[in-house]
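Researcher: I need the complex structure. Ligand is nicotinamide-adenine-dinucleotide. Inputs:
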Amino acid sequence: MTKRIAFIGLGNMGGYMAANLAAAGYQVSGYDLATEAAEKARRNGINTTTTAEEAASHANIVFTMLPSGQHLLEAYETLLRAAPANTLFVDCSTVDVTQARQARDLALNAGHRAMDAPVSGGTVGAEAATLTFMAGGEPEDFTHIRPLLETMGRTIIHCGDPGAGQAAKICNNLILGITMIAVSEAFVLGEKLGLDHQALYDVASQSSGACWALTNNCPVPGPVPTSPANRNYQPGFMTSLMSKDLSLALNAINDTGVAAEIGPLAAKIYRQLSHGPRAHDDFSTVINTIRDQTNTAHTADKATL
Ligand code: NAD
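Model: Output:
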């Protein structure tokens, strides 16, 4: 069957993803509430429409790439009515697992099919078509959609039933958020103990402390020349997005009753960071907060002596 694609949400991620589909020869109708995003997409070969209905009405596959679960549920009110029966809805946004399942139920009740397929890899991965897709949905829908995901990404994993993609995404980012704080605390402790950054890196990266936060996204400049710390913490993966993902993880922790202690603390740390001037920096900037707080505490201790 010819794949007729609608792409809803042509922002920082969706704009590149839709453009990669169009560049591969697929017919893509696109819609975004923001005129600027729509105009950029039009220049990249997307047939942009003035309403969401118009984009969905001729589609048999509808991708969404929206800021949140609330945006998704609101957009579905229109899209599910407009699309021809049995359209496959694929949501690539990062949303709450509960909202992902709600969206899937709405789609099924409206006579459609639905999957979640959130991504990691950031805007660089979206532009270069090297994203990782974590998909949740029926195996036959996954098989049908796989060539499109391969057009936009490099690693495509079917994680299970609907919602499993979102579950995998927040569990992965829970690990990432926590390990970045652990690595940052270790570097600040090393500084206080007179340990050279490179020496700590050489030991930990070859030892049991090795992890992606250290070996790819090292929070101090030097040991990993491509890490955001070498460009004054320009992202990378913005602190505000890490905070969003950990708040979704926190919702899931509360919903399931998991006895997690470090996750909620990590969520709190990134939430505080995302309300300050470092919100748009890479999340590895958490090391600067730890250093600032260490120095403030040290000064306060001296003052009370
Ligand atoms: P963005 O804000 O740049 O883009 C979202 C777009 O959706 C905006 O252009 C907005 O105008 C549009 N929009 C909102 N409601 C709409 C509606 N009802 N109909 C049509 N358009 C609508 O956000 P982004 O950075 O592209 O992120 C999109 C999603 O991808 C988010 O859920 C985010 O968490 C996730 N994500 C982002 C990154 C990243 O590095 N930016 C990485 C992984 C996942």
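Model: Summary of the prediction. The first strand starts at residue 4 and ends at 8.
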